[in-house]
Design goal:
By secondary structure, this protein is mostly beta strands. The chain has no helices and 11 strands. The chain has strands at 3-7, 10-13, 18-25, 33-39, 46-51, 58-60, 68-73, 78-83, 92-98, 115-116, 120-125. Strands 2, 4, 5, 6, 9, 10 and 11 form a 7-stranded mixed sheet that branches. A 4-stranded antiparallel sheet has the order 1-3-8-7, with no helix packed on it. A hairpin with a 6-residue loop joins strand 4 (33-39) and strand 5.
């Protein structure tokens, strides 16, 4: 059984920081998590960041560049997202996503991913 789970969400004031973590269990050896997405109330899901298995490829949506940093620990099959200088517009449920094929790259397109976590709430107050 495949399980992808996010942790680290919470409530923080604008300008604060949070670090999210994502682990995947029960996936294939190449079913590693590489993507972060988020969905705000009434909004569509959008890509936030992704990092390839080797760490050689990273992508960030423009609104988080310079503030968010994705990283990973393959020994733990864990994906991280360090979020600094948080803004109220960052408020959303953050989802972790994993692929199911060997591909040392990543994508900001949700269509690429097979496994999804339940999400963790990030709330940034003014």
């Amino acid at each position: 059984q495949v399980q992808v789970a996010e942790s680290g969400g919470g409530t923080v004031q604008a300008g604060g920081s949070l670090m999210l973590a994502c682990t995947a269990i029960g996936v294939t050896s190449y079913g590693y998590p590489t993507g972060w997405f988020r969905q705000a109330p009434g909004k569509e899901r959008e890509g936030v960041s992704c990092i390839s298995w080797s760490g050689g490829t990273t992508y960030y949506r423009d609104s988080v560049k310079g503030r968010f940093t994705a990283s990973r620990d393959n020994a733990k099959n864990t994906l991280y997202l360090q979020m600094n200088s948080l803004k109220p517009e960052d408020t959303a449920i953050y989802f972790c996503a994993a692929i199911n094929f060997p591909w040392d790259s990543c994508s900001m397109s949700a269509a690429v991913y097979t496994y999804w976590g339940q999400g963790t709430q990030v709330t940034v107050s003014s």
